[in-house]
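Changelog-adjacent note: as of this version, every example in the card shows the full chain rather than a window. The one below runs 351 residues end to end.
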Amino acid sequence: METATYPNNRADGAHHQQQHRRRHGLIALRNLFVGFVVFIALVLIAAFLLAASAYAQQGGKGELRIGYQKSASLFVLQKASGTLEKRLAPLGFGVKWIEFPAGPQLLEGLNVGAVDVGFVGEAPPIFAQAAGARFVYFGYEPAAPHAEAILVLPDSPIQSVADLKGKKIALNKGSNVHYLLVKQLERHGLKVSDIQPIYLAPADGRAAFESKKVDAWVIWDPFQAAAEKAIGARVLADGAPGVVNNYQYYLGARDFVTKNPRVIAALFEDSVAQGAWLKQNPRQAAERIAPLQGLPVDVVERSLQRYEFNVKPITPAVVADQQKIADTFFDLKLIPKAIQVSDAVVPGAQP
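Full-length structure tokens:
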């Protein structure tokens, strides 16, 4: 009996050894698989952290929100063409265009964080800064002194600015043209107290002007071009020669501009490229822009010809010019306190 059990014991031992080896093999395979899964997870986490870091360096938005007005012809063209979206795609940024009815509302959008950058004339940022709004200047369009003017009707007896003494003049209070009027009156020995200012928004100003309820109208393009084309309005005086510059400004949220120089550079590059195309092809550009602005093509084309469309980084000389306007508005009691425009400029923020 005892001798008969030996073979069985040896067989059982071999069987157990085989099972033991198989079990160790499965454990090793499982450990290898778990290690592989952990390795892949670590790689994915590292990639995510790198992407998150790059995303944070771009401001953490992934979207450039642009505030614009329909009268901002270059932005209207860029929005329609989609060129900025293509330029920003390699940076991981999309574009969201947000329309505002006028500059003051756009500045409020910047102040509350609804947009990242915007484009306005000279006056709105002065009023906004005086009211404590948070924004910075980071670019400007070259002077366009012919793109705003004092208009009179074609049959008006008024032949010079000096003839405006005692006359009713329609204008948008606190706007770029308010400054133009002040400087032209000074140039001809008059003060604002020597005329009768009638403060009206552009549409109401056009109606009062056309119906002869006022003697003159101070207005900017494209409303100026529309009045010239539609009713033969005559330019009594504009910003030239050397009266006012009529700059247009690129403004932005301080944090966005300082943290996203590559995005700002891309915006500049696209604006310069599209502006150059516009200047070389004014009629074709007007045909694209006019339907979006709700104006005749001829009116838009005339308006486009009075701008340079060549954005540049903000400079001390331009800041000094803006300071003159701010000081004038304070002297006229149009803003509640004196401001330093340079406080709203970030050194080194320009691309």
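Structural remarks: The two ends are 98 Å apart (CA to CA).
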